[in-house]
Design brief:
There is one protein chain. This protein has 2 domains: 99 residues, no CATH class; 76 residues, no CATH class. The protein is mainly α. Helix 1 packs antiparallel against helix 6 and helix 4 packs across helix 5. The two termini are 20 Å apart. 48% of the residues lie in helices and 8% in strands.
Length: 179
């Protein structure tokens, strides 16, 4: 392995390590973005012909960049996210009819069970998990998913941190450059 590939390898390892840290520690107040560990465990990279490729589960980019909601003004006027787009700058958006039907609700069901959430109404009475899933799915669909940048931030920081080393490695390997 030449100096260039060694520098790329250091960069890629840094990105993966920092992204995993962000998933574990960067969640909502007192939480994590890493409920099932699936995304965490799926993060990997490969280097081929001087190109670094990062891999993750299909939903990783949505969690990283967020998803624009269909229409936040359609939420009840007293709701927290009424009229507020959680990911206004995201390239991803709900309502394109490209995702699997019922996928959001299925994912929420598993998440609610894993988190041990016992839904209650305003009077403190238990409500069905089906109702909770509906309310959560509606809110997410209409207002979107907030970006976490769990991957984007380390990707950008790593490039800044290792850019000189990568350039020097390339020059040393390809131009017999000496300092």
């Amino acid at each position: 392995m030449g100096e260039f590939e060694k520098a790329l390898d250091k960069y890629a390892k840094y990105v993966i390590q920092q992204a995993r840290t962000n998933l574990t520690k960067g969640g909502p107040p007192n939480g994590t973005y890493n409920a099932s560990m699936s995304l965490y465990n799926s993060l990997s990279y490969s280097i081929e012909d001087g190109i670094v490729s990062f891999e993750m589960l299909d939903y990783g980019p949505f969690q990283d960049e967020g998803v624009k909601g269909k229409n936040p003004k359609a939420l009840p006027s007293n709701s927290k996210w009424h009229g507020k787009q959680k990911a206004p700058n995201s390239d991803f958006k709900f309502g394109t009819k490209t995702g699997p039907k019922g996928g959001l609700t299925r994912g929420l069901d598993k998440w609610i069970i894993r988190k041990g959430i016992a839904p209650r109404d305003k009077e403190g009475k238990f409500m069905s998990r089906k109702t909770l899933k509906f309310l959560m799915a509606r809110s997410i669909y209409l207002s979107g998913i907030r970006p976490t940048y769990f991957f984007t931030k380390p990707f950008d920081r790593g490039f800044i941190k290792y850019s000189d080393e990568i350039i020097l490695g390339f020059m040393n390997d390809n131009l017999n450059f000496e300092e």
